[in-house]
Amino acid sequence: MTALTQLSQAIHDAPRWHQADQFQNPADIQIVPLTGEALGAEVYGLDAKKAQAGETIYRLKQALAEHLILIFKQQSLDDLQYLAFASYFGSIFRPSADTPVLATQKETGTPPDVVPVSNAVGQGDYTGHGELTPHADHQWTPLPSFGSLLYAIELPQDGGQTSWYNTIKAYDALDDATKQHIDQLQLITYNPFVRIAQNKVQDPSAGYGVFPRYRFKDQPIVGDAYAHPLVRVHPESGRKALWLSTHNEVELVNYDDQAGSELIAQLREHLLKPEFRYEHQWSTGDIVFWDNQVTLHSRRPFPSEQRRLLKRISLAGGRPF
Ligand code: OGA
Ligand code: MN
């Protein structure tokens, strides 16, 4: 028998319904919306190691579409158990080797299915300890992930909180004229990992280097460009959301440079309003599962000498519409 891949092994090993002590009783699960927050619900009484009932996964999918992020408390999983749980909700995001993303490996041209997000040198220190500005994962790819999960293993004493932004609320709060104006616009978000690689070639000590926020037509194009709608429709709820990261290099298609950069700057300022944002204070054992189609997320910096390790699984999504 040939060796199984990690994902096949995960599903092979996962508990099944007939194992009574490994079956999650749906009646034990409570989904509690966060009060007074822009988005989010906490899920109690669910052990993600266990086999889940169909009605449970359906309920969680509906809750995700409604609350945009789900927070599972007090989990204790190895990578295989984590993969088995995450893949109830869809296929693992596996970009092709022509599109670099966070944690792309030199040997394969793709990221691992479980990405360590850490500041420990050589152990998944892709994002270091600095601030991460509000973004949607993989927005610059042809087929961005529909959602991701982050599982907190080790946390710093100070900082490192992650915020999520409700971009449906942000869209809804725009005035009608702006909505009408932007509804049919297409946006290119340039791949920051191409820019990072290029900066490193030019100057190995450059770190992340400088990113323009908007590309004017006389500026070089960095990497392949994939236009997606600026206003996205959620595939299940039908709600519209503003799909724009706040700091990446972007460009509106068929739009005047100056006017486009001003419009994008205005929308970005709007997105950053506190009423659209929920800041998560992590506890170890938390898993946050977010809908990447209708949220942004960001991270506060934390001291470099304090360790932080989360594990991320991203799920494949369809072409944005
Ligand atoms: C990510 C990410 C935020 C964090 O892994 O996609 O944005 O809090 N992480 O580390
Ligand atoms: Mn991210």
From TrEMBL:
Which of UniProt's keywords are assigned here? Dioxygenase, Iron, Metal-binding, Oxidoreductase
What SUPFAM superfamilies does the record point to?
Clavaminate synthase-like (SSF51197)
Does Ribosomal protein show up as a keyword for this record? no
Q: InterPro entries in the record, alphabetically?
A: AtsK-like (IPR051323), TauD-like_sf (IPR042098), TauD/TfdA-like (IPR003819)
Enumerate the GO terms in the molecular function aspect: dioxygenase activity
The TauD/TfdA-like domain covers which part of the protein? 32-312
One Pfam family named in its UniProt record: TauD
Transmembrane ranges, per UniProt, are none
- Which family is this protein grouped under? Belongs to the TfdA dioxygenase family.
Can you name this protein?
TauD/TfdA family dioxygenase
Source organism phylogeny: Bacteria, Pseudomonadati, Pseudomonadota, Gammaproteobacteria, Moraxellales
